[in-house]
Amino acid sequence: MSELLRVDDLKVHFSQRGFSGRKRVIRAVDGVSLSIDTNEALGIIGESGCGKSTTGRAIVHLEDPTEGRISYRGADVTHPDAAARRAFNEKVQFVFQDPMSSLNPRMTVESIIAEPLRAFGAWDRVTGPARVVELLERVGLPAQFASRYPHEFSGGQRQRIGIARALALDPELLVLDEPVSALDVSVQAQVLNLLMDLRRQQGLAYIMISHDLDVIRHVTDRIAVMYLGVVVETGPADEVLDHPLHPYTAALVSATPPSSPDEHRERIRLQGELPSASNPPSGCRFRTRCWRATEVCAEVVPPLEPVGDGRSRACHHPLDLGMPTIRTESAA
Amino acid sequence: MTFGQLNAGSSDVGTPGGEDPRNLALQSADGLLEQNDEASIEMHEVEGLSLGRIVTRRFFRHRAAMICLIILAIVVVLAFTSQGIDAFGVQIHGWWMWTYAQVPDVINGGEPTLSLVPFNIGIHPLGQDTVGHDMFAQVMRGTQQSLMIVFLAGIVSTFIGVTLGSIAGYFGGWIDAVLMRLTDITIIVPFYLIAAIVGQTVGGAGPAFLGIFLGALLWTTLARLVRGEVLALREREFVEAAKVAGASDARIIFRHILPNTVGVIIVSATLTMSATILTEAAISFLGFGVRSPDTSLGLIISQYQAAFSTRPWLFWWPGLFIVVIALTINFIGDGLRDAFDPRQRRGLTRRARRERAMEVERATAAAAGSAS
């Protein structure tokens, strides 16, 4: 496996003018570093407003990075010109959260899926429709849906159309922004299975952004946990979710309802609200809500340090690896 | 999609997650068909047709629009054949016994000779004015001129309004500011002042000039409406999706944004076109537009407004044609807007919808079977 995409110290800031005319800078993403290998599945989790979507959008250039570097197969694509951007988009595609608004209501499914092909000049009157049918079949939709309009489909079908569009150019990496959070559980399963199949069959890599820990555990190998614009912990999905090192990850895991009545979980209740991204706390960003915070947390920003086994964490007082797991099965 | 395959999938990521209720849901989702929207049973007839043919077909099904299209076509044919064509050096004589410029003797005080029982057209069916002009010839000539002005003004104003509005809305920033200030200036400069100056300079301009002139001043409403729509559409996810798909700005504007503003454009354009008839009447009344002996519908009405109580027919007939033209254009616009909207449900019987629903279900079942 070789490294496909690398994000170094990415920052995305939005400036906003308030009523007083003063400029406020929202630090949506404030120093995120990630990397993904070919055919790998990386999950980004975190609560609403932690900057996970902005990170994904910045990767495909829907947002302009304020600082930092994005490289694809070693080549810098942070601020690409039009040609470089096209070349990049041919290999990296995006799937949107809301399948209702991400499909143009005035276009047929065929034109929607063919749009990337047309934009890249790969559309052909003879082979084009066949390619669309092939893409539809790959995502499990019948060929006769090609001439229909998006409003005729259910949420799950629409999301499959969105995935078919993203696959049209045979990308190497898909960035999925909460692809299943608008769908109900049974349909979620179908879409997730589709993604796993595609990865197995086509060697696709994907970055999945989600707030649903079970979804992430199910479909990804490695995860990055984000809090207030920074990555606080990374590592193999099961390791991180079963034995969190960062107190925030532990709190996040404990907030997920237990999946079986026999399972017992200790609920960690965080105090306070998510601080404003325009004025983040000094030192460790999580210290205002952390039950383990001390003076050092307010003064020194904890770096994201590797701790072995492919895991890293950014914490002065990490939970010990030997500590009892949060996820405990009490034998019936 | 079998349960075994799911387990294979989850063991890929190293989770023996058998106790997860999601997996139970997966299990029950096995064989479960996706529910189809009510809406998915529409448009059986559009299967495999190009967008242009779908629109045409749906337009022809819109009864009010079709009736209005036929009426407007009759008016156009009547106006252009009865008085002939005399424009751009082409001269074709019409079939009507009088031309608009002829001044025959006034018969019976100019009363209309048209009678329905017994049916008789007579020599001056719509009457004559005080001088002796045949009113049918006058109204037909006026209709010709007004139609040409209306359509030219409609095309020109729509073109300018859509172009400026979409550029301003899509690119934003200083481009938006400049174009919108240009729009504001066009709105605040007194319309009749420009008309007076241009009328004096050019003097007795033909309908072609008048139509373009009106269009060049009446695009402001449309530009603002289109800009607003584009501003809203620009933020929609399908536009972002097009960007990620590698589409150029022009492609995004023309293929993704403008088709979604067709409703606003058509409604505004048809309203502008009906308003243009009256605006043309006003500037002709002031002497800056069409001038005597040539005539237009607005000019006829303004010329004879004092005669309303004594010779009402001088008023009724041109008025009727103005109303007919304005109404039919609006209804045709309505039909076009509906035809362009893929969500319209018009034209399917309940039984057709039921059959359609069953077909969709079968297709989904077949696909779910072949996908796993």
TrEMBL record, chain A:
Gene3D superfamilies: P-loop containing nucleotide triphosphate hydrolases. Transmembrane segments: none annotated. It comes from the Bacteria. One of its GO terms (molecular function) is ATP binding. It holds the Pfam family ABC_tran. SUPFAM superfamilies: P-loop containing nucleoside triphosphate hydrolases. Keywords: ATP-binding, Nucleotide-binding, Transport. Residues 5-253 form the ABC transporter domain. The keyword Nucleus does not apply. Belongs to the ABC transporter superfamily. This is Dipeptide/oligopeptide/nickel ABC transporter ATP-binding protein.
From TrEMBL, chain B:
Residues 1-13 have a biased composition (Polar residues). It is a multi-pass membrane protein. It is found in: Cell membrane. Its main location: membrane. It holds the Pfam family OppC_N. PROSITE patterns: ABC_TM1 (PS50928). Residues 1-21 are annotated as: Disordered. The chain crosses the membrane at residues 64-85, 147-171, 178-199, 205-226, 261-288, 314-336. Keywords: Cell membrane, Membrane, Transmembrane, Transmembrane helix, Transport. The keyword Glycoprotein does not apply. It comes from the Bacteria. Residues 143-333 form the ABC transmembrane type-1 domain. The keyword Aminoacyl-tRNA synthetase does not apply. Belongs to the binding-protein-dependent transport system permease family. This is ABC transporter permease.
